[in-house]
Amino acid sequence: MTTPVELTSADDAEIELQLLLEAIYRKFHWDFRRYSSGSLKRRLADALVFFGCATLSGLQERLIHDERVFPELIRFLTVQVSELFRDAPFFHTLRRDIVPLLRTYPSLRIWIAGCSTGEEAYSYAILLQEEGLLDNTILYATDINPDALRTAEAGVYAADRLPLFTENHRLSGARVPLSAHYTEAYGAAVFNRSLRRKIVFSDHSLATDGGFAEMQLISCRNVLIYFDRELQNRAIGLFKDSLCLRGYLGLGARETLRMTEHEHDFEEVAERWYQRR
User: Fold this and answer.
1) Domain hosting residue 226, numbered range
2) In the chain, N or C: fewer CB atoms in 10 Å?
């Protein structure tokens, strides 16, 4: 007779987590099952406090029976931290090393995956406008969070964020002031319509959806760090298939293609910049 294996509290917590993620997928068709377990547990700990639940099982029960829970829970499951020209050296490299090669294309299609509340998308639009490329460019900015996409489409940000945005923009190698790209009124900065009309904001999941065709550049920064290895490989495969030959992929500071299935499909041409072989 086999002796039953007694589960530890850590085992129980992992079972609860997987059952919650399975419930989200089956009921709402949002797939977090291959996101990093450690990252999800930290965010769900805050969610338990917010919803007043003692366990993930309790949260799962509420999720299934109360339609008001899921829209609130998404705020905890998706990371919405961004700023204009975040990590300025990344954009300086883009401006100095990548833009001259982008000029060789008659038109540009750029995919910003995981665009959050839009700051990344507007950073690209501003840089391309300053470099004389925006008129011939379409930017596809995608995210899984509908609230974040609505904020992004509006292109309105609190005025108290402008000093940081302005400094980041300067460090990116800009030769004109950031104020040329927005109007400030009533404590907010509204980015120019000339930028917004070149950006298509769309709902898209790297866990379940397909890619886009013939992109010259894809930027996916600080997204892959929240995925497990299997989902990282899926996402990078989408980027590879979506990029034209010699197209560019930009990643975040803590992300790399090393030790992934697609490591040899790309050549690292600058820090955090890769070119499809």
Assistant:
1) 88-276
2) N
- 182 is written with which tokens? 């927005």
Question: Would 82 be classed as within a structural domain?
Answer: no
- Answer whether 277's CB lies under 8 Å from 263's CB: no
Query: Is the Cβ–Cβ distance between 116 and 152 less than 8 Å?
Result: yes
Output the six-digit token pair for 38: 């450690």
Q: What tens digit of pLDDT does each residue of 101-126 get?
A: 999 999 999 999 999 999 999 999 99
Determine phi and psi for 24, rounding to 5 degrees: -60, -45
pTM: 0.85
Structure tokens at 207: 């866990």
Q: Does residue 127 share a domain with residue 101?
A: yes
Pairwise CA distance, residues 103 & 170, whole Å: 22
Residues 64 and 193 in one domain: no
Same domain, 149 and 93: yes
| Token code pair at residue 132 | 């004389």
Residue that is last in its domain, among 47, 77, 107: 77
pLDDT of 131-164, one tens digit each?
999 999 999 999 998 889 999 999 999 999 999 9
Torsion of CA 161, 163, 166, 170, to 10 degrees: -140
